[in-house]
Write a structure and sequence with these properties.
The protein has a single domain, classed as Metal-dependent hydrolases (TIM Barrel). Helix content is about 40%, strand content about 10%. The strands form 4 sheets. A 6-stranded parallel sheet has the order 6-7-10-11-12-13. A 3-stranded parallel sheet has the order 1-4-5. Strands 2-3 form a two-stranded antiparallel sheet. Helix 3 packs across helix 6. The longest helix is centred in the middle third of the chain and has 19 residues.
Length: about 400
Amino acid sequence: MPYRFGSRSDFQTIVTATATGVPKYARAVHEQSTEVNWERDSDMIIDGDGHFFETEELFDKYMEPSLRNYRPRLLADEQGHNFWVVDGQTSYKRPTIKGAGAPGTAAPPGKALQSARRATPGSQTLTNLKERLDDLDREAIDLQFIYPSFLLHANAWPDGMLANGICRAYNTWLNQACNQAPDRLRAVGVVSLMDPDGAAKEIARLHDMGVMAVMINGTAGARRLDHPEHDVFFAECDRVKMPIAVHFSLQFPFVDTLFEHHFPNRVLAGIFPIMAGLTSVLCSGLLDRYKNLKFAFLEGGISWVPAHVERMDDHFDNPRYGAKDLISHPPSDYLKTGRVFFGCEGNESILGKIISEVGEDLFMFSSDYPHADRTEGTATILKNRSDIAAPVRKKLLEDNARHFYGL
């Protein structure tokens, strides 16, 4: 069958560029943009995926009395790196263990402040909003949607009732913090689909609070997103028209324990949940059953999108696979409905190619601030790119985020 997003030679170019690492163009555009004294014009820069690091005080203050004894707690290793323990479990490994990963990941700064985050403790934790807003000014970001760090993995915790109790405390605190600067910061709620009824109830509360989107992961434990147990959650999101962000997480059944070393685990387990989530959304009829649902898939990169959707379309066209039992048209058709979006960081060298293949209305700028593995100044990098037309850059930096979040 023909490749629906373009020629197979074009697709091979994308794959080759991805496999060879960061090309010279990306480095060149970054070096050039850091020398430009760019001033904002009338267009807004909307960051569709910023973060903060949760603190113990958040859970101490807002956890419900019946669950407070089971609230997340911070411990520190001998080097002063913080790590989280929840329900007696932690993903922390001693730094002396080969392949353990970066110590202190997902935790607020301890005595061993992570300078790699390039943000003050008050900005990292949203406990000093002036410091966060100053950082947004330096990053040329007008409005930032805030996602968690520790709670990125909440949908993998086996006790869904406890997880949603933790999420409720988080949602209350974050919404109050963002409401102190509502023209610059917007809270994104978090729920756990391990307790679908509790997640649905929290959607109603988030809507009443004025929260504009909710985050889940691409799987809930070992359950796919379109599992029948999740219908109560999707029905409530559909009722109140709550956008759903499917965010990066390292927890994916079996895959997250396949490799002992952090490097291959992060390469594979980090992308599989998002791919599984997109497969659930595009191949199950979920968007047909719930006409008001919108999804964004965040922090998974962009190069995999055309390859994965092409594979879906190939399988749809083959009658042996029975795709029409579930959907009546190719999965790629859903990408034309204005209900599916993807995050992009702006410095991906192949972004222009991907946009031309998949569509300019699907991608929204995502800074990943203040996580240590981000590139600084990506809003400015994207704003100054010459390989993407100005009207398309505006869509990436503002319009597409407005459409997803309903601004």
